Amino acid sequence: MKRAVAHLANLDLNLLVMLRELIRERNVTRAAERVGVTQPAASAALSRLRRHFGDELLVRGKGGYVLSPLATQLAEQVEVVCAAAERLFAAGESFDPDVSRREFTLLVADYTIAVLGEHLARLLDEQAPQVRLHLRLVREAMATDVEENIRLMDGMIAPPAGRFRIPGLQSAELFRDRWVCVVATENRVLATDTPNLEELARLSWVVPYQPNQGYPTAAPIAQQLTTFGIRPNVAVRVESYQAVPHLVAGTDRVALLQERLAHQVAGRLGLRVLECPGDPEPIVEKLWWHTNFDEDPGHVWLRGLLADAAKQLG
Question: Which residues of 287-305 are buried (b: 16+ CB within 10 A; e: fewer)?
Fold first, then answer.
């Protein structure tokens, strides 16, 4: 234990921030500008990081630097560590959105960004022009390991699920949605606009967040299909909600999709939005956070900002 503490004490923790920006920007000059140091200072920091890890980290390619395999592996870890450090040193401070440069990290689905992003970005620009927002896109593994991830970021936006039944977790409803079916306008298999479950079950499906032919417990669409009694013939699996309608367009495939997202893209992609049979459960999108942030002034402001953005959805 003493050896570990001594090792940490000998580290220049400023290198963490430089490592994060070098990985983000893949450019020494831009990373220097982000941190507020000179280009030679950033180059020196990169040299120190290379010696520490015994790896090039940034490797010259045809169009500039690319990440080494180790740097790719470190990318997520350094984001988590820096975000946790920023929250640690911001604890107890007053928060003034007009001048704060604090960064907030949220775990969200790309569907949430499509629905809420425009309103959130506008309010953030109006109320806190220097505050930074880091939106991390949800992955299946991150969504299931809620207890660990929720301590390392400011919150996540997701529907209620069994994985959220852990001590110290708070939530507030942001907005609601519902499931609809989407098919191409020229779908040759499904002629009716009021399909029943048997007709849907015969079609090929596009399903997001389904890593295999089983039903992952954390995937809302898979849970809904299970409730319907449909074991879909999955033609396309994809790690994105926004990609789903693009993979239905111009085909005979079908997908479940959130209604707000479906109506955003239906006209542009030539899709029919159909009522979903089988009495689907409503979608309730909530903000989840750890009770450690309850009295944090900055986090209180963030929760209010998200609530205001959600109200603009109607």
Answer: bbbbeebeebbbbebbbeb
